Amino acid sequence: MSFRKLKRKFSIDATQLSVRPHVAWYVRWSIYVPFVLGAIGMAWWAYDSGLEFAGFHRGQAQQELEKLHTQVISLSQENATLNSKIAQYEQQIQIDQASSQETTRQLKTLNDENAHLQEDLAFFQNLTESRGKEGELGIHRLKLEHDSMPGEYRVRMLLVQSGQRAKQFVGSYQLVATLMENGQRTNRLFPGSGEGDDQFKLNFKYYQRVEQALHLPPAAQLESVQVRVFESDAHEPKARQTVSPT
Question: What domains can be seen in the chain, in order of their start residue?
Fold first, then answer.
């Protein structure tokens, strides 16, 4: 080794050697852990103290939360009960409304029937008081009304044979419909060819109500219907009358 290296090694500028005692890691941790836990405890105490200083008490807050939870459960149950009652009331109202509508409909039907009966009573009273020719046939209360569907009509009439000793009337009737179709006026006969005429037969002594449905093209415009009443084996009608739709 050279003199220069020896001088540098043992001179005042040589690197200093520090000697420290060796401490085991578990000893160091046993010293540090209490300080760490103490710091955490101090921080938690400061946090809790700050909450209390701000007016927030953890125990009271927990009680309030439990109280609110209980109120929510109670209100939910009450809401379910009220919804059930509302459903019952709505159902009852619907039943009452349906019953009221049915009652109103029945009352209207009875009023209409009563009005028809009063008309029939007045008509037959006048017919009884009047003295017509024996066996004379008349067409009364003839009406032509629109039905529910386009092109459908309904004819109503009352055939009356006057006289106290009237004979049994046996015959039939025809309906002649006059309508505008494709810009032309045409006539249609009921019953038509190939159409059964049993429903057009008549057999009565004093009176007979007649109601007949007519089915026409929906685009056709019905102007009038003429009723012709024939006695059996007769070629000329014994009575006829024309009516327009109402």
Answer: 137-243 (2.60.40)
